[in-house]
Amino acid sequence: MKQKHLLFIGAALLCSCNHGVTQLSPKTLSSVVKSLTLDEKLHLVIGQNLDVNAAGTAVVGATKNYVPGAAGNTYTISRLGITPAVLADGPAGLRIDPTRKDDKSTYYCTHFPIGTLLASTWNTELVEHVGKAIGNEAKEYGVDVLLAPALNIHRNPLCGRNFEYYSEDPFVAGKIAVAYVKGVQSNGIGTSIKHFAVNNQETNRQGVDAIVSQRALREIYLKPFEIAVKESKPWTVMSSYNYINGTYASQSHDLLTTVLRDEWGFDGMVMTDWYGGKDAVEQMKAGNDLLMPGRKQQYDQLKSALSDGSLKMKVVDKNISRILEMVMRTQRFHNYKYNNHPDLKSHASVTRQSAVEGMVLLKNNGALPFNNINKVALFGNCSYEFIAGGTGSGNVNRAYTVSLLEGMKNAGLKTDDSMQAEYAQHIAYTKTQVKKPEGPMANFLSASLPKEKVYDDDRLAAIAESNDVAVVTIGRLSGEFVDRKLSDFNLSEEETALLHKICGAFHAKNKKVVVLLNIGGVIETASWKNLPDAILLAWQAGQEGGNSVADILTGKVSPSGKLTMTFPNSFADHASSDNFPTEGKMIAFDRNNADGVGNKQKQKNIDYACYAEDVYVGYRYFDSFDKAVSYPFGYGLSYTSFVYSNAAVKRDGSKVVVSVDVANNGKTSGKEVVELYASAPDNKLMNKPAKELKAFAKTRVLAPGEHETLTMTFDSNDLASFDEQQSAWRVDAGRYQLLLGSSSRDIRQTLDFDVEASVEKVNNVLATKQEFKRLTY
Q: Is 456 an annotated catalytic residue?
């Protein structure tokens, strides 16, 4: 009788427990983790599986339960109040499906400028404003975490994803990322800074081993992530596909725990890139909390490892805790009533303004702004079909894209109707000749651009006679999954011949030619830049691109963008050119083949990438070795001119405070970017670049004759280089120079100041496992 009574009590308690299950909250987190079943734990760390196609492959962006077109979501456990976190792409705007089955509404998002353009604004306040708008759209469409920003370094011009990335300089990349993250997260929406780390090529990106020194890792490739983590506190970090010195990034304890968490103090969640890594057990041990988008193979690996003891439950529990901490920060967890109606109209104004400020005027011999121009001849396919941005995860499903043709007309300019009709016919025909992408990722890829229309001399002469100015748009596609070919870096024979002929025809009539670059990354300019009268680097400016370009061409706004990367005279001039693939091979899409086996095309640098240039990336190389360039880092013209004066430096503890007066001494209103470089004394610390950027600032709009005092601050420890022998950040004592410039090669003011020596020890991790010859200065 007593035994039956105890059984009855036990049953009653069990029933009571089931009805009063602890719900997830900050106070109950540990108890919720303890109450999870093994199956629930395993599902939480591998994410919610996406839709699977007929071939048995998960389709990225096909999740339908919450936000169609989102990249994926975390696992739901209703009994414990664990809601899903919806994750969506978004470097240039939120990427979700614009239409839904059995739904007449549309769900368009704003396509903002690509990352290279945003960084070229050198305006962190503006980038934060863009981030706020993107975060608002994520919030109102029910997305919890934006898989952005991407802040890998422009190691080489041919990297297929440079359009998403910000700069060849880690300081610029880090500061722009900080602004973006702060803007997005001000909405209560998370970000995932990516791709951590050294994801600098698309060729065999899941199998390539980046062989790179500890010094280059610390100073160049990890530095922008360190800045973003410490200054903006992103909710999550996304580990990259590649190996680093023999270890998968997503399986590197040294990277994800020792450096990211122990040294930098990151307390958020780490997730893989989609299908990243090979060994789920090693990923868990490394501190990679969430494996996305989730595969049965990973579930089985983890279950087996927990069973045989090769994986401890306390490791999984720690990872789950970080996942749930992230979930509890989401709007969905707090039951936010998203409305699916963000203010797209106001956001269109934001993208138009931001695009204008990031366009870079490379050349101007009196052609711009337009003066007494009534009729414009628009050459180039991209004048009529403007490229708003890149493909892949950086794409945005927008309602429209304003072409240059439309932008010109919106600005009150006339265009040549006969040319418009000719191009319409030409583009329609050439599109039928272009092979469309195929395979499981076809929706993420773009077909090749149509070949340019070739005009004969007589027709060009007639066009030159009947129009006041020529605008020639040269376009290049940008996209994930494939690096650019060397032929994409250079102008084609058709483009070169057409440019020669157009300039010849218009100059014969004493009329100007303007070249517009509708591109996502660096191209060769040295061989042809002497031909036109002006060159405007418009980048890929988002959905309002045509209007933004027109704002500059007509003089409504003076250009103020500056390059965040160097334009070399030739591809071979780049320090990394001997160690970068140039054939533009497509990556493999075999999701069960994550180590790259089977994707080993006979191509230079397919299995490993030797970072032999070491810390001499971009201007650090070109300026240190006095290499001639087409356009230097930090370069950009204006419709006015600026004078620097009264530069001064003072110390405030470890802080170095630099001020300078900037005056507009031209005849047009405009903004100026001031770049602050540091140059170390040639003493104990050898092999240091000639100069390195340490701060920058941008003026407000200055009217003619107006001036502003800009103040820039950095820490003296920011002068350190990484000493591999001591595994320490080391500053050598001596007299340093501060260089205030309008570009890395246009230094306007120089200051001297003394610095004390310092050494800051860090963990000796991420070392190379093989010797290789490194570039030295």
A: no
